[in-house]
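Q: Hi! First time asking for a complex rather than a single chain. Here are the components, and I think there are two in total. Is that enough to go on?
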Amino acid sequence: MTTSQHEISDEIAKIQADTPTGAPLLDFAPYRSTRLRHPTKEFQQVDPEGAELLAPVFGHSDVAAAESDLTIGRGGEPIGERIRVHGRVLDGDGRPVRRQLVEIWQANAAGRYSHQGDQHPAPLDPHFTGVGRCLTDDDGWYSFTSIKPGPYPWRNHHNAWRPAHIHFSLFGTDFTQRLITQMYFPGDQLLALDPIAQSITDPAALSRLIATYDHSRSEHEWLLGYRWDIVLTGSHATYLEPSDD
Amino acid sequence: MTEATPGQTVGPFFHHALAFPGDSELVPFGSAGSVVLHGYVYDGAGDPVPDALIEIRQADAAGVVPSTGGSLRRRGARFTGWGRCCTDGAGHYWFSTVEPGLPFFAVTVFARGLLDRLFTRIYLPGASGAVDGLVAAREDDGRLRFDIHLQGPSETVFFKFPRT
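A: Yes, that's all I need. Here is the structure of the assembled complex.
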């Protein structure tokens, strides 16, 4: 608990100089909880087969349209800066991931999750749970209406703060494309200090987690727009492209 | 190939977003032909991981991997071949499902403190071609048991796939 941000930042800088990687390092000591939770053996390379070749399928029986608006349905307006986050889900070959499930969760404007494990002494918002779902459309587009989440403290080290973020859970067409990640906001000064974000030691790769402000999607006297595109890993079925595409 | 969006940890606060009623019951618990697949998730000190999320993907009993929607609203839905379970305070996960007609359950593992998802497989007992260490044990009551060790002497075999 007595480790300072300065010490954590020094640890991050040393690792980043040695190993720039586009995927997060699982063995990343500045994020203290990784210590006993990162595998140490080499991953075994296998070719996907059977159930690994096919992601689960979701449809309109799974998700109601209203679930993509986190600002409604709770008996009143949540407090905070109203935003829309939209973008496309693409596979590694640049093709849209169609009609697939996107799940999100986030803190409220004060940086507090509607979760019993969150003990941060910031107010809960009775009109905000911070949970949403949608299906991508036929061109891979998703869109959520929400409130800009606040940054919040955590106990990784002294005076540790997570940058504002939205958790995203994504599926592709193959089970092997499964992704859970976090979207960050542009210009957030906490990103450089955050051991979770900085576990992606290649700055170009980390930049792919940062949304851009999208004025074309801001709405007059209503909300601010952000755009964030997501690229999954490659599908193994590239050569099985349906003929009607 | 376009550069993939990197993963990040699922964090500690995913339960209210990702859990849903019936998430771990691919078929109703106790129904005819069902089997329980369960186990514990452990860290490198052998302590349970109470904030992990396990997902499975599998074929049906006839060996067909379903492309059927309805996992999130299972009542009355057909078998979808996908389920999700948050570990409890003891690190325990469980699924009520059928034994797949193909030799393994495909598995993804997420947890607080784990910066990206892990892939593994759980093979049925006696499956031919099983990867060493990834075979479920058949318990006396018929349940299938498979523990996941994120680290340590019993560390689970995790996979990488081409193009990931």
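A: Chain B touches chain A through 70 residues (CB under 8 Å). Let me know if you'd like any chain examined more closely.
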